[in-house]
Amino acid sequence: MKQANLAAALAEQAGSTRGKTEPAPVATPVLETTSSTPKTYKQPGRVSLVPITAHFPREVRRQLKGLAFELDRTIHDLIAEFLNDGFAKYGKAEIAPRQGG
Q1: In what helix (H) or strand (E) does residue 6 lie, and over which residues does it extend?
Q2: Distances (CA, A) of 82 to 57, 59, 65, 78
Q3: CA 97/CA 21 separation, integer angstroms
Q4: Residues near 79 by beta carbon (within 8 Å), at least 6 away in sequence
């Protein structure tokens, strides 16, 4: 005769799913849309902007943040200034927009 397991009986009565294997997920049909790309939210002020990223040692970031603090400017504004200086050095138009001051 099989011995009753009180913990299992209580868990079963309470509807516990702990320790039970989940059934395989059922594939749901994807609704077709008129656009081939998914719609994602983009902040209105960034509609025509794209990110530019680069990796530098941590100390470069610290120095940039410190300089921005000392000059009471944003990091974005300093980077735009640095990009424009580089563009001017190589005879290109200074087109990086600055936020202020």
Answers
A1: helix 6-14
A2: 18, 17, 14, 6
A3: 56
A4: 64, 96
C-alpha of 16 from chain center: 36
**Which amino acid is residue 31, in one-letter code?**
L
Which residues make Cβ contacts (< 8 Å) with residue 77, sequence separation at least 6?
A: 68, 98, 99, 100, 101
Q: What is the pLDDT of residues 30-69, one digit of tens each?
A: 666 566 677 888 888 888 899 999 999 999 999 999 999 9
Taking the C-alpha atoms of residue 48 and residue 42, their distance in angstroms, rounded to an integer, is: 10
Q: What residues contact residue 95 under an 8 Å CB cut-off, 6+ apart? A: 84, 87
CA angle, residues 96, 100, 101, in degrees to nearest 5: 115
Tell me how far CA of residue 76 lies from CA of 12, 40, 54, 67, 88, in angstroms.
58, 24, 14, 12, 18
Read off the pLDDT of each residue in 93-101 and give the average, rounded to a whole number. Answer: 85
Which pTM was predicted? Answer: 0.57
